[in-house]
Amino acid sequence: MQRYTAILIDDEEPGRKNLRSLIEKYCPEIDIIAEAGHAAEAKERILEMHPQVLFLDINMPELNGFDLLESLNKKDFAVVFVTAHRDYGIQAVRAGAVDYLLKPIVIKELQQAVNKVVDVLSQKKPEPSNADHKPERITLGHTGGFSVVEMKDIVRLEAESNYTRVHVTGRKNYFVSKPLKVFEDSLKDNVFFRVHRSYIINLNHVKEFLREDGGVIVMLDDARIQLPKARYNDFLEAMRKLSISI
Prior knowledge:
Elements: E1 4-9, H1 13-26, E2 30-36, H2 39-49, E3 53-56, H3 65-70, E4 78-83, H4 89-94, E5 99-102, H5 107-122, E6 137-142, E7 145-150, E8 154-160, E9 163-168, E10 172-176, H6 180-186, E11 192-196, E12 199-202, E13 206-210, E14 216-219, E15 224-226, H7 232-242
Parallel strand pairs: 1-2, 1-3, 3-4, 4-5
Antiparallel strand pairs: 6-7, 8-9, 8-12, 9-10, 11-12, 13-14, 14-15
């Protein structure tokens, strides 16, 4: 089943939590990758993560949902408005919304909206200029701005609660306010391997594998990562594809 990435935008946290719960339970086609509590935060998330769907509230402080859409130069996503107000239906249509849900959300109406999103996105043709392009660099946001890192230089990524520590060559690391799941979805190159819920490693930076303690991966920076038994065969198969065994 094709899944589509989504961001939930609502200035009320209970509203976001409720919508997330309903989507995760009843709409398996949608993969929620981020939330935002106001338009400025939402714009930052959209530009960073390029979601395929926005579940967007209308009445928010400073900029409302329509203002947010107007502020974006590129709108390559489907929009589902989620609001407690009935008065914006015509404006939502003019803004190109796929659907318009009223709070409190009815499960059947949410599923119908998601079906419309799937219909729209499944008919969308990919942009030919980027169809075969594989990015070689990644931007890592931090409080002072962002840093650009060559993906080949990433040794491993380590989860720390809802944050990720990105270790690169030269013993340097970056602390990024994104969960490891976001990186897993973005780094779909076959050189990156999810060891378990706490680590993604670059297979090109593996130094050795030891069968001690059930299985330990040793990286070029000397980090030792325990390999779960359930991932043992997948790891060996991934390594075989990248190296010649003698």
